[in-house]
Amino acid sequence: MKWNAATPGFGPVNDSDGWAQSSTLKLKVFLPLYFKLRTPPLRRFLLPVVAVAAFLLLAYLPKMRAQTLSGLALTAAPLEDRRKALNALFEEYWQATMERSPEYASVLGDTRYNDRISDYSVKAENAWLAREEEFLMKLAAIDPTGFTDQEKISRDLLLRQFADDSEAAAFKEWEMPLNQMSGIHTTYPQLVAQLSFATSKDYDDWIARLHALPKAFEQVTTNLSIGMEAGRVPPRYLLEKALDQVKELANEKPEDSPLALPLKSFPASVKPAERERIKAEMLDAIGKEVLPAYKRFARFLEVSYIPAGRAEPGISALPDGAKYYAFSIRRTTTTDLTAAQIHQIGLDEVKRDEAQMLAIAQKLGFADLPSFRASLKTNPKVHPASPEALLAAYRGYLGPMQAQLPKYFGRLPKAPFEVDAVPEYLEKTSAPAYYEAGTPDGSRPGRLRIDTYNAASRNLYAVEAIAYHEGLPGHHLQISIAQELTGVPTFRKHQHYTAYIEGWGLYSERLGKDVGFYQDPYSDYGRLEADIWRAIRLVVDTGVHSQHWSRQQMVDYFHEHSNIDETSIQAEVDRYIAWPSQALAYKIGQLKILELRERAKSALGNNFDLRAFHDQVLDTGALPLDVLSERIDAWIVAQKSAVSR
Fold this sequence. Notes:
Strand order of the largest sheet: 1-3-2
Number of domains: 4
C-alpha cells in the first residue's frame, strides 16, 4: 500500500516557540505511563486519572484548567449526556483534521477545502500540537462508564494517537520531510491524479492550489534549513535521488507537467469558453509560479541541503537516532518488541521460508535453491514481454479470487476496484505495486498501481501474491470495508495502523494458499519469495537502523536469501533507509493475525468459522495489534458461551 503523501505528519514541535516544549514535556512524561499498562481495563481506568491529574498538578495554562474542570463535570453526567459529548468531540476532532489537512480531505472526497493546501510552517505545527492537547484534556475527562465496547475503543484509540503524536514531537519529524519516497515535490503531482474534475469550480480550486504552492515550498525549505542546522538530515545519496525527481518535474513544459493533468480532458459541463480561460490560467500558474518554485527548491537542495546530508544510512546516526528508532518501532508495529527481537524473528522466518522454497525447487527437478533461482532469471516464461502483459497477469489472478470471496468473508465492500500503471514520473523509484484507496462514496475506485518500468526485468511468478496483497482480499477489501463502516466515528474509518493494514495484506497472500490458490508451483514459489521478502525486511531494517549495517550489506543479504529482481532490491533498500521501521509492519502484523487465527481454531475446534473470524478482524477498521488481540480473545469467549448455551 502507498501512504498518502498529501497528509502532513502530526505533532512536530520547535523549541524556538517556547511553551511548546514545556507542554509537550507534560504529555511525554505522563501519557506513556498509561500505554505501558497493557491490561485493557486498567488502562481505560488510569488514563483519565493520569492525564487529568498530570495537567492539574503541573498547573497547566489557566484557560486549559478551566476547560479541564468543565470537562470533569461530565464525569457525573448521565450516560446519554456523556455519550453526546464523546461523539461531539470525535466530530470536532475530525473536522479539525480535515481543515488542517485539506489535501487529505480532498482525497477522501470532502471538497470544502479544495482551494487550499496545508500550512507547513512551524507555527502551524505547534498550533496543531496545542489543539491535540486540548482534545486530549476534554476526552480524558469524559467518564467511559456505561459506554459500548466500540465507544471505549474509539476513545482509547484517539487517546493513544495523541500520546504517540506527543512523543513523536520530541523527534521533530518535520525537520526531515524529504526523501526519494515522499516530499512536497511529489505530493501535489500525486494529489492531482486522485481528484475529480467535474465542474469549472474544480478547475479553479486546483488553480488556487497552484498559486499557493510557492509559499509551501518556502515553508518546507525553512524547515529543512532548521533541520540542517540541528544535524537532522537524511542520507546524502537519497537526497540526490530526490533532487533528480525535483529537476525532472521542474524542467517539464507547463503543458506536459503532471500538475496540468486536469487539462487532458474536460467534462461536457465545462463550456468551450471556460476551457480556454481555465487552460490559460492553469498553464500560467504552472509556468510562472510553480515551476520557478521547483527550480528554486532544486537549487537549494543542490547547493545547501545535499552537501549537509549524512553519510551513514541508518537513523541511529542522528543524535537521538536510537531512541527515535525504538519509538518508531513501537508506533509502527504497535508492539513492545525491540529491534534485537525483531531482527531474530526475521532470521527465523527467512530460514523457515527457505526450507519450503527448497522443497518446491526439488519437486521441479532442481538440486538446490541457487540452481533454481538461476533458471528463473533466464526462463522467458516467468518474465512479462511488455508492460501490458504485466498488467494483464495481475488482472488474470484477481478475477478468480474475487469470485471466491463470498466463501471466506461474510462482509464484502461495495467500492469498485481496478488495476492501472504507476504514473510515469514515479516509476523509476516506485515499489513494484501499491494500492491507492478510493473515495468512500465510490466516485473514485480503489486502484492497484503496477510499476511497469523496465517490465522485462520483472517476474510473473510474484504477481499472484502481490495481487492478493495489494488488491483482493488484501488492501482493497480491508480499507473499503473500513471506509464503509457505520456506527463508528469518521476518524476510525481512515485510521492508519501500519502493522494491521500491511499485516492483513501479507496475511491475504498466505490466505490464498490456505484456500486453494497458487496452483502453479512457480506462483507458489513466488508466494514464498514474497513472504521471505518481508522476513528479510525485519533483518535489514533493524540491521541498518540499529546495528550500523551499510547499504551494501542490505543488498547482499537480499541476494543471499532471495531471487528478487535487482530493480526492486535497489528501490526497496532505499525505501527502508528513507522510512525507518515502516517495513517491519508487514511480517509482524501477519504473524499476529495468523497467531490469532490459530488461537481461535484451537479454542473453538469444529465450531471455528473462518468467515466469522475474518469479519471479526475486519468489521471495526484498523486497530493496534494489542487491541486486535483483545478483540479476538473476547470473541472467542463469546463464541464458546454461545456454543455452551
